Each structure stands twice: as C-alpha cells, then as structure tokens.
Amino acid sequence: MLIDIKSKSQVTIPAPLIKKLNLKTGDKLDVQEVDGKLLFTPVLMIPKDQVWFYSEQWQAEEAQVEREKREGKLHEMGSKEALFDDLGLDK
Predict the structure, then answer these.
(1) Rounded Cα–Cα distance for residues 18 and 3 (Å)
(2) What pLDDT is recorded for position 76?
(3) How far apart are CA 80 and CA 91, in angstroms?
(4) Residue ranges, CATH 2.10.260.10, the chain
(5) CATH code for 7-43?
(6) What's the rounded Cα separation, in Å, for the pair 25 and 34?
(7) Are 84 and 90 in contact (CB under 8 A)?
C-alpha cells in the first residue's frame, strides 16, 4: 500500500489496516526507525497509579495465586467469622 505524507507530516493509515488492528480514534502508536523503515506499533497507556499491577513481580504473584486456586490450595471464606475460625482466632 502506498500512502502520501500530507502537510504537517501527517499520514493516513488505510482503513483495512485500522480495522484489522482494531484501532480507534485517539489510540497511541509508537513510531521507530528500523533499518531505514518506519515501524508503527499500537500501544496502551497505563495510568501511573496503576503501573504496579503490570510489574513482572506482581504478575508472577498473580499467576501463582491462580495456580494455587486451580490446585485447590486456596479457598474463599464466606464471612470474617469463618476466616477467624479457620485461622483459630477469637472473633
């Protein structure tokens, strides 16, 4: 596909690519030059107050919890009283 560079260095991404990549108005694209070519990569922006959730450590811990849930090593308590009782604590 050929596209034109417009005034103010703007380009239009062809509609079939927009649809294929499920891009929407306002989405962010990272652009890099790689061996004389432009590489556009769609990116998601994460609010700073939520970055901790996406850290490698947090995601590894989330995965561990999910494994333990599947293996039956973890269970939910129906109430705080049930939790305290299970832990052998006074209410």
Answers:
(1) 14
(2) 85
(3) 9
(4) 7-43
(5) 2.10.260.10
(6) 25
(7) yes
